[in-house]
Design goal:
Keywords: NADP, Oxidoreductase
GO molecular function, one term: mRNA 3'-UTR AU-rich region binding
GO cellular component, one term: cytosol
Pfam families: ADH_N (PF08240), ADH_zinc_N (PF00107)
Strand content: 25-35%
CATH superfamily of the largest domain: Medium-chain alcohol dehydrogenases, catalytic domain
Helix content: 25-40%
Distance between the termini: 13 Å
CATH topology of the largest domain: Quinone Oxidoreductase, Chain A, domain 1
InterPro entries: ADH-like_C, ADH-like_N, ER, GroES-like_sf, NAD(P)-bd_dom_sf, QOR-like, Quin_OxRdtase/zeta-crystal_CS
Order of helices and strands: EEEHEEEEEHEHEHEHEHEHEHEHE
CATH architecture of the largest domain: Alpha-Beta Complex
Oligomer: single chain
Shape: globular
Structural class: alpha/beta
Amino acid sequence: MSKVVRFHQTGGPEVMVLEDVAVGEPGPGQVRLRQHAVGLNFIDLYHRSGLYPMALPSGLGMEAAGVVEAVGEGVSTAQVGDRVAYAGGPLGAYAEQRILPADKLVPLPDHLSFEQGASMLLQGLTAWYLLHQTYPLQAGETILFHAAAGGVGLIACQWAKALGATVIGTVSSPAKAELARQHGCDHVLDYSQPGWVAQVRELTGGKGVPVVYDGVGQATFMDSLDCLRQRGLMVSFGNASGAVPAIEPGVLSSKGSLYLTRPTLGHYTGTREALLAGAAALFFAVEQGQIKLAIHQRYPLAEVAKAHEDLAARRTTGSSVLLP
C-alpha cells in the first residue's frame, strides 16, 4: 500500500485527503517508482481549485524524484534501481509510490539529490523553454521577469544572467527583493507598489524591454504590456495572482504592435527527444554553477494542506518539496 494524496471535489486545501492505495505492478511501457521527494508547484493549486478542470476523484502533483522499483514489458529506457525524476504525465506525484509511463522519466545525475531533482525539473524546464524556445534570449538584451524570487524565477533569472542578459526582476516584498538580487537580478522592483512601470522605462532609456515573462497573471498583466518596446513579446505563463482577463486584440496594437503568447510546458516537451534535450541543458547549467538551486521549504506529505496554504499566501520563496 502507498500513501497517496487525492481529492474528490475541487476547493481549498481542505479537500485533499491522504489515502492508502494498492499500487500493483507496472503494465507494458510503465514503471513503478518509489518516490523520495515530490515537487510543489503553483499548477497544483490550479488543479485542486478547479481552475484547470479534470475528472474526479484525482491525484495531484506533476513532479517527483525517486528510484525505479519495477519495470513493465517493453521498457528499454529504465531499469530497476535507476535514480530518476519527472515533470509531467498523469497527475499523481503526491504519493509514496506510483505507476507512470517510462518515457516520462529523466535519468537523475549523481551530482543531484532526490530533493533537487524533485524541486527543479518542472520549474527548470519551464525556465529552459521560456529563455531558449519561447523567446530565445540573446546576450546584451534586457528582460523583465516577474516573481523573481519564486521557484521558476530564481532559476530563470540566474540562467538569463549566465546567458549575458540584464535582468529586471519584480517581487512583492523587501525580503524577496534581496533573494532575487542574490540570484541574478541586476535590478529588483516591487510590483505591489505604484511606479514600477515607470522604473522599467527609466532603466531601459524609455524604450521598454523586448520581452516580459509573467507568471503572476492578473495583478501584473496590463502593466506588463506598458513595459514592452514596440513589437515586444508578452509571455504569460502563469496565474499566481489569478487568471488574466480577456483582452481585445486592439489593445496589443495600441500599445506598440505587441505579441502575446500563453505557453505551457507540455507543448515544448511533447517528444522524448525534446524532454531529454531540455533536461540535459538544465542539468548542465546546474553542474556548471550557472544555476544554484534554492530549496527553502520542506513538508511531510501529511502536511500537504499547510504547504498549499503557504504557497497560495506567497509565504514561500524558491522551491518547496513534499517528503513521502
